[in-house]
Amino acid sequence: MSYESGSSNTSGHSERRRHPRCKAAIPVELHLPGVSTPSRTNTQEISVGGCYVETMFTLAVGTRLTMTLWLDDASMNISCVVATCHPQFGNGMEFVNMGEEDRQRLAKFVRDNATLPEH
Questions:
Q1: Any idea where the domains of the chain sit in the sequence?
Q2: Which fold has domain 21-105?
Q3: Number of H helices, E strands in the chain
Q4: Are 104 and 76 in contact (CB under 8 A)?
């Protein structure tokens, strides 16, 4: 997800997301530089700024990679950086480069499926 300073949520943690998000299990492939076989998983939640993926084999914060995401049977390739790491559970991914058409398609998907409150 993309983060910036923000207000606290009800759990007392600082909520820093800049974009509306939704819960969605979207298939993704994580492509690490120098690794020929991608890791396949699903998103847990997503916004136009990033997503959270569930994976037992987490990546270190700061790792750069490419993600292939399938939305409505069409793929999009997105450059990402790992923003958060929860060992044996998952990673928060910040999108750092995405085509404008893909960004608009993802924004529409999030708007149409929004289930989480905006902060």
A1: 21-105
A2: Thrombin, subunit H (2.40.10)
A3: 1, 7
A4: no
- Show the tokens assigned to 24: 């969605």
Contact 74, 90 (CB under 8 A): no
Q: How far apart are CA 17 and CA 22, in angstroms?
A: 12
The single-letter code of the amino acid at 52 is Y
Q: Which amino acid is at 30?
A: L
**Is 110 strand, coil or helix?**
helix
Measured between its terminal Cα atoms, the distance across the chain in Å is 13
For residue range 47-74, list pLDDT tens digits in order: 999 999 999 889 999 999 999 999 988 9
* Residue 52: other Cβ atoms inside 10 A: 20
